[in-house]
Amino acid sequence: MKIYLFTTLCLLGVSAAQKVTQLSPCVTKENNLRLDCKYEAVEPSPQPTCEFRQDGKVMGSTNTSVTPEPAFKNRVSVVIMPDNMCRLNLTGFSDDKPRNYTCIIKQKKTAEKTSEFQKKNLATCSAISVLFQNSTNMLLIVMLLPVLLEHLSA
Ligand SMILES: *[C@@H]1O[C@H](CO)[C@@H](O)[C@H](O)[C@H]1NC(C)=O
Ligand SMILES: *[C@@H]1O[C@H](CO)[C@@H](O)[C@H](O)[C@H]1NC(C)=O
Ligand SMILES: *[C@@H]1O[C@H](CO)[C@@H](O)[C@H](O)[C@H]1NC(C)=O
Ligand SMILES: CC(=O)N[C@H]1CO[C@H](CO)[C@@H](O)[C@@H]1O
Domain segments of the chain: what residues? Predict the structure, then answer.
């Protein structure tokens, strides 16, 4: 069963090139910008680094050697979350011009995605949307579950 699972994971892993699939911004109740960056097909280790930019300027990175622009210093946190997601948290989000936001995921390869938005068009963050942000993942779990159960009980 272990081998079977391992093979499944490998197949899933190589079935797509490393890429950033989704950038989802929202504004929290505290007026912070939350920007979720979903990516796929990274290798299990080392952990990828994740970096966010606004109009090309570094906002924050999980790589501590990367220095953010002074304007973002102490206002930004970037964390890698479970399930191939990286989250930016920017406090005091008052800027209301359209800007290009880029998420960059670096492992051996680099993948990135840019999206242009401005504050007034963003939705307020809700707790539930995070869980079901991408139904593809849910679907995958639902599809794999019977297979897993079958092998566990065999
Ligand atoms: C972190 O950033 C530094 C400076 O840009 C770079 O030399 C280093 O390779 C990066 N580390 C990782 C793990 O990406
Ligand atoms: C974002 O940062 C603020 C200030 O540091 C903090 O209070 C808040 O809990 C953070 N939000 C998230 C989702 O990490
Ligand atoms: C965002 O990037 C696109 C493509 O490079 C460019 O056409 C657009 O003007 C940029 N938007 C802003 C607000 O800089
Ligand atoms: C519900 C949702 O946002 N689904 C998206 C999940 O991600 C894939 C690409 O990886 C999109 O095609 C779906 O629209």
Answer: 18-124
